């Protein structure tokens, strides 16, 4: 517990040199997933990199898998909230949101989990991968009416052809996307779970930051 609390304190203080187009490989017991972190959300990008550096995601698990919705990894809400309840002297620490209109919950997006705080601030130790499903115009129209916001035409096209979870847009910070291994992410999202969406067998992952050479090679392959 002391080590974890120390790590959570360090993550508030450590500032890494900002890297452009950073890639992280999720090495899982189901296969590898490669993710590009967005430079448009530099604070969340660096927060996640800091977390990897100090071991917050070592042997982490996708511990809440909601089929055709998201696969959540890191710490569960109950774990975080119970720790805060047991240690009120530490206060409630959340990471300020970086919600950008052009970053949305398309299939393959990487998001930061959070509780229902009014600032939409993120947890330090919880992420999720979007799987979602394809939407039709009627479904997207209903979301627009419910949330009183217009879904850009380009995003509507993506939701209709690739899929995602548009009902989460502008409520959670999206800070990356899958650029390799989507089939692994799909397989993880289809794993058998109990009634609480907890996988029946452990889905372990270890995020590894790609070297500059590896990232440069991957950018060339992806034409970024």
UniProtKB/TrEMBL annotation:
It is an enzyme of class 5 (isomerase). It comes from the Bacteria. Keywords: Isomerase, Rotamase, Signal. Gene3D superfamilies: Cyclophilin-like. InterPro entries: Cyclophilin-like_dom_sf, Cyclophilin-type_PPIase_dom, Cyclophilin_A-like. Residues 1-19 form the signal peptide. Coiled coil: none annotated. It holds the Pfam family Pro_isomerase. One of its GO terms (molecular function) is peptidyl-prolyl cis-trans isomerase activity. Its EC number is 5.2.1.8. Residues 31-210 form the PPIase cyclophilin-type domain. This is peptidylprolyl isomerase. It comes from Pedobacter hiemivivus.
């Amino acid at each position: 517990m002391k080590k974890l609390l120390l790590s959570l304190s360090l993550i508030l203080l450590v500032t890494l040199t900002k890297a452009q187009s950073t890639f992280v490989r999720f090495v899982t017991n189901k296969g590898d997933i490669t993710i590009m972190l967005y430079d448009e959300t530099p604070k969340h990008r660096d927060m996640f990199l800091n977390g990897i550096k100090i071991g917050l995601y070592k042997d982490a698990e996708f511990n809440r898998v909601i089929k055709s919705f998201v696969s959540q990894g890191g710490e569960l809400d109950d774990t975080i909230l119970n720790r805060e309840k047991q240690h009120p002297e530490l206060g409630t620490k959340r990471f300020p949101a970086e919600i950008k209109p052009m970053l949305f919950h398309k299939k393959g997006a990487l998001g930061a989990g959070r509780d229902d705080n009014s600032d939409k601030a993120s947890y330090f130790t919880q992420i999720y991968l979007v799987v979602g499903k394809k939407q039709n115009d009627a479904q997207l129209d209903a979301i627009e009416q419910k949330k009183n916001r217009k879904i850009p035409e380009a995003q509507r096209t993506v939701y209709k052809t690739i899929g995602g979870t548009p009902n989460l847009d502008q409520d959670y910070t999206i800070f990356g996307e899958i650029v390799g291994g989507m089939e692994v992410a799909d397989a993880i999202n289809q794993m058998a779970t109990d009634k609480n969406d907890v996988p029946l067998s452990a889905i372990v992952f270890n995020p590894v930051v790609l070297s500059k050479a590896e990232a440069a090679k991957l950018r060339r392959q992806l034409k970024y």
